[in-house]
Amino acid sequence: MIDSFGSAEGTVVVDARTEESHRLLDRQLAKRGLTRNSPPDDRAQWREFLDAVARSYLEGEQGRELLERSLAISSEEMQDLYSRQRAISACAQALLFSRDDEAVPDALAAVVKATQASCGWIDVNVETDAFPQAYERKWSVCGSEPAQGEDGEHTSRSWKESSVDVGDLSQGAVLTRLVGTDCCDGTCTATYVPIIGERGWTATLVTGALGPSPMPPGDLEVLRVAAGMLGSFMDQLEANRRLAERQAELEELIRSKDQLIASISHEIRTPLTAIMGYARLLRDSQLSLSDAESEAFIAMLVDQGDELSNIVDDLVVAARADLGHLEVVAVPIHLRAQTNQVLEAIDPNGHLSVRVAGNEVAALGDPSRVRQIIRNLITNAARHGGTSIEVALHLDEVGAHLLVVDDGRGVPDGHQDGIFEAYHRAHAVPGVTRSLGLGLFLSRTLARLMSGDVSYRRVAGQTIFDLTLPTTHERLGR
Amino acid sequence: MPIIGQVGFSRFRRSVIQVSTVTFSVASGWSAELPPWNSGSTLVLAFGAPAFVDEPAVWKELVDIYPDSVIAGCSTAGEIEGGTVSDDSVAVAVTRFDHSAVRSAHVEIESAAESLQAGRQLGRELLEPGLRAVIVLSEGLGVNGTDLARGLNEVLGQEVIVTGGLAGDGDRFGSTWVLVDGEPRTRAIVAVGLYGDAVEVGYGFKGGWDIFGPERLVTRSDGNVLYELDSMPALDLYEQYLGDRASELPASGLLFPLALRVPGSEGQLVRTILAVDHDARSMTFAGDVPEGVFAQLMKANFDRLIEGAESAALAAGNLPVGEGPILSLAISCVGRRLVLGERIEEEVEATLGALPPDTHQVGFYSYGELSPDGLGSCELHNQTMTLTTIGERRVD
Hints:
Number of helices of chain A: 10
CATH superfamily of the domain at 327-469 in chain A: Histidine kinase-like ATPase, C-terminal domain
Low-confidence stretches of chain B: 1-14
Largest sheet of chain B: 9 strands, antiparallel
Helix content of chain A: 40-55%
Oligomer: heterodimer
């Protein structure tokens, strides 16, 4: 069908058979009672129609522009998101497959690369308290390379000298400060993100970006995620470290137990060998021994039996202490009398030349345990101390004191803190019988159970082990 | 009441709903004579351009003709009648039920904070045996549609169908009104209850918008006021995307509705913008935007919008009505109006085309739509075409 549309300029021919109409155009026409084959009669209607068509064009154009704009912005955002995701993935990959902290610089470099930062570092708190005083810069990168002159420098730096509020950091806040950097030749905006793990705030991930602009939110999100991963990684490292320590302790314990068994064997064998030797001699040579010799041998048997008994006593007490089953009684005792009783038992012939000085001192304690302590201290002095041994007694405001003093060289340096630990042996003197390393541990344990203590000190070239016990003046007086 | 067959034999009585739609404009008057169907079971729905708040003669005429009927309606961002959309008219649907009852209730609210209580009160006033459906027409700006729907759900449960919408004010977002007993009132919410076994109500809603770009976390909000996305002012994001058209905010914000997703879930709710505060850099939406949910921008796809409207109609039109006319109440979002522009009538034509032949359509462009979700509870929707179809089953 061919129609003609008359106008001042001439005739427009419309071929409706070959052109498909847009339904919007059809609607515009229909609203005005028109069809493609019946154009408007008057100019006003024509203008109204054109306005409607123009609006449609304008809307289409605006819609297209808005769509293009939104897609461009959105595409950029998605690209940023993808970059950050890759960075987080690289950070996770570096940390996930590593068992030591060598992976941290790689993770740090991935974070710096993904953000607007030009450098980054990790400050590890020296203390793990809520408000540590200092930190060490353990890792740092500039670009993707380790920063020069930073790594390996584990010098403590004071938080007080920085402008950072450690209270805020410990609560998980992200802080931004203008700081001078060692690597970027100038001032940069540093973003501090706390690394918080099972032990609380332990370290801080810091990134520096040139210029005064704060880190964009997307980059901050990357830093937060990275800090979270670093926190978990450091927890894992700490757990590994504790596990290794525990393993070393267990290995040391096994070694100690082996040594203990060896020591016990040795300690028991020595008196046992003597006992067996004297016993066989008495059995085999009974008729040819004089009375004096027999008495001497029997005395030796008794001495070695006592020694054996003392060793067994110590082991039993140590085992009970280990299990927490050690109990004591508290009764009034006289320390001088107890000392004499011990000396009669361990040195009936006075070979040790132990001098007891001072008046009788009353104390409160368990008599057999007190004697065990005194015996251990005197035996210890005889074994490791000098030739002169003195037991001195006195009272003061602290309590009743029994000092075992000798003129030996004292406890070697480096062992003074450990001499009261179980199975600790500070001395390894050739020719001197090795001990179990239980005497001082048991002495202190027993003394403390009786509300007293045993301490060590060196005064004027003399070694002093000081047994302190509660006094009982009034009770004794009554 | 029309009676078919012999008088006195109820088995020959047949229920026939009557529906008629007409429009009014200042220039042309009424497009047809208003049907003389005044009765206690007649519902008159009237949706008018905002300026008709100052045209009392129109409302008086309605009240005079339908003194015993329920007259409800609201201001719009575009009036729908049949397959056409107008901006300076009143679109009226008169529906006389034969075997069903109609009642209305209304409340006035001073602020959006009263929305939950308003929903409860309307529900309580309408809740009576036989209540099948409630149509809610609400103040469009000073209301929290999410809370309003929650209040209605608390009282009415999932058995009563609740649909409706928030009144509009063109693309100005200045002031809206609601027609209560034939009188336009600001800060009001009206609800119409439909009662009886014969009344059949269908509903459907569909968006048709596409999500795009990254998800962003809502990091600061208060009810329906959104302050920050990903710790950045939400208004900055919209201004960046809108470019020159940012000067047209809040209307131009409708071009990019927000899809909200609760972490761990797949479903999304759509929120449309109602207002902006340039000083606070905040945006007010028609429903809640809770902190901790993910938000994603949406953009229009013309064909999908129109297909969406058609889908809504197909869902709503699935009524076991049999013979007799159907009223289609079409409530569509002002955002769709803004995007579709000169093409807006395509969506109302699409809905009408998908409904049975004897369907009479009336409705409006709104600031928020109310319709049941998949579980039957009423929810606030945004950027959707929401259809409610009303018919009446024949009773022999």
